[in-house]
Every structure is written in structure tokens, then in C-alpha cells.
Amino acid sequence: MTRREEEGRYQMLWDCPACGAEKLLGLDHRFCPACGSPQDPELRYFPSDDDKVAVDDHPYHGADKVCPACDTPNSAASDFCEACGSPLDDAAAAKQRQRKVTAEGERFDGESGSDAKREARERKQAAKEARLREMQGVGPEPAGPPKKSFGNSKLGMACFSIIALALGIGMVFCCLSWLWSTTSDVTVQGHEWERTIQVEAYGPTTKRAWRNEVPAGARDLRCTQEKRSTKRVKDGEECKTVREDKGDGTFAQIQECKPKYRKEPVYDDRCRYTIDTWSVTRTEEAKGQGLEPRWPTVQIRGTQEREGRRNAVYRVRLLDEDGQQHTCDLSEARWRGLKPNQKIEATFGGLTGAIDCSSLSP
Ligand SMILES: [Zn+2]
Ligand SMILES: [Zn+2]
Predict the structure, then answer these.
(1) Which of 360, 198, 190, 357 is nearest to 288 (CA)?
(2) CA 35–ligand 1 middle distance (angstroms)
(3) Helix (H, G, I), strand (E, B) or coil at 247
(4) Containing domain of residue 197, as a range?
(5) Is 119 a domain residue?
(6) How many domains does the chain have?
(7) 244-275 pLDDT, tens digit each
(8) Ligand 2: distance of its center to the CA of 93 in Å?
(9) CA–CA distance, 322 with 8 (Å, rounded to integer)
């Protein structure tokens, strides 16, 4: 996804801590030209665009080896320290500065020796803390299960609190409504029923669909362009300039580019069409009181009509002990199971006072 292109190699800079000479070159000045002090690779810094000194045809062997005897940085290709002659077999690689990023077209102001010092200090501090944590981890603590539990992290604590709070509120609410819900007798006052049958007719109907979804047999298509979806379209690149410390007194300036996208609407034909199909034209209804429901009579006119969906509602009217009326819609079997003037037990919601129709029991 990301395109990387190296634009050039340049020298890092360093300031001589002994004599104060500034902007010495990371690759050319391994020793201070004024006083001869060795370079500290950790204190190299990135120059501004104006101070950049290009490096041509410099073979890169890797980050410098720091002499374990005298701390002088040596090319990764050398076997012995050029300052003191010590072997470099166990030499550590020079620390590299963190990469610097600027937006495309923006100038880089450069750094100073103090930026490098601050970063070195922070790195040492972080390393010290990591060592300390490691020591505590394998210290005299009992070797029980790892203590890094969910509850240790701040996020974990926050999650835990929220869950506990939600559970608490839920339980309180549940308990209250359970405590406040009451049970009392109700009397069946009467039965009501309502039954419907839809009547469908075959004939022309107007419908809408995307052109590719218009069914066979459709006619009189009238289509207009409408937005159907969106798509991601590549829209150039977003670039930034990255400076990477190579650890040998040089840095690489790299252009990193990522593709950019924008959303674009996708249009398609939205069509209105006519098609012959079955559709509901009217609903026949029958309703009444008592326990003898019947279906409405349906007059079918010729072959262009047919019966469609059937629907039924069975309702009881109930009177509670306070003289309040309630209604419950039930299944046909439960509805038939209740007799007029029968006394049954019902539960009423504590918070709402509404009857719980699923609670009716003889
Ligand atoms: Zn010096
Ligand atoms: Zn040395």
C-alpha cells in the first residue's frame, strides 16, 4: 500500500562536547577537527534542509560498532577500533535516533545537539524502567499465577465498573418490579373475536425496482437515474518526508506515499413498471361477542379473484377487584379455555399497573 522512495543520503550532525564545536559531520568527522575528541553516535542530530550535506557513493554496512573500550564509533565493516585498536567482536551497534516526519512540501527546521541529548536521556530512562519492571517480575515474589489480571489495567477497571453498575441497576429494577408486582383475582366479563380474510385480485399493478431486478413480464417501464450505492475511487496520493537515522553517521531521506480515496456515487436505472400479479384488493371482516367465532363470507368474483391471508384476534374482557376493566389478546385455545364469570388469578406490573396477560391462570 505504502510507496517508499529514497530521495537521498545525507550526513547527520554532532556537536563536540569537549570544545563546543557545532554542526560537525556525522560521517566525515569521526573525531572533532578542532580538538580531536571522538564522536558520540548517540548525540547525532538531523540537520535542517539548509544544512544538509549529501553523501555520494557511500557504501552502507549497517549501524556503527561502538568500541567497548573507548566508545568511539567505527564502521560496521571494521574489525578493530580505529582509535584504540581493540577488537570489535562484541561491540554494540550505535543507537539510532527516532525517525523524523514532515508533511509533503513542508520544510524541516532541523534539530540541535540538545534534542539528541533529550532523546538519549529518555531512552535511558525507559530502559531503566523496563529493567526495574523485569527485576520486580522475577524478584522474591511468590511464583503464583501471573498477576497481570484484567482488573489491573485502567481500561479493565473502567469496563468492570460499567458492567457492575449496569448489573446493579438491572438487579434493582428487576427486584423492584418483582417486589411491586401484585397478584389478585380477576373475573372474566366477556369474550370478543375478530376474524378477517384478505381478498386478492389478479391484474395490473405498479411497482418499482432497479432495472436488473425488474421481473420478466413487466411492461410500461419508465426509468430514471438514481443513486444506488457509492464506491471508493483512488484520488492521488498523500505523501510525507521521513528522515531515518542509518546509525553510521548518515541518514536517508525517504518519501512515503499512501494512496488517497474519495467516495463517488454510483447511479443506476430505477424503474417504475406495470405487471400482472395477485394483490390485496379488499379485506372481509367478521366480529362479535361470545364463544362462537365465525369466518366472514367471501364473495369471489370470477377467476380474477382468490382468498388471501386469514387473521384472527381473540380477546377477553376482565374486571379486577377494584372495578377496573382490562383486556387480553390470547391464543384461540386459551381464549376458549376461559368461561364467562370465571375467577382467575392475574399478575399486575408493579411499575406500570398493567395486567400481565401471560400470567392468567385458573
Ligand atoms: Zn572538539
Ligand atoms: Zn576504541
Answers:
(1) 190
(2) 4
(3) coil
(4) 192-361
(5) yes
(6) 3
(7) 999 999 999 999 999 999 999 999 999 999 99
(8) 14
(9) 92
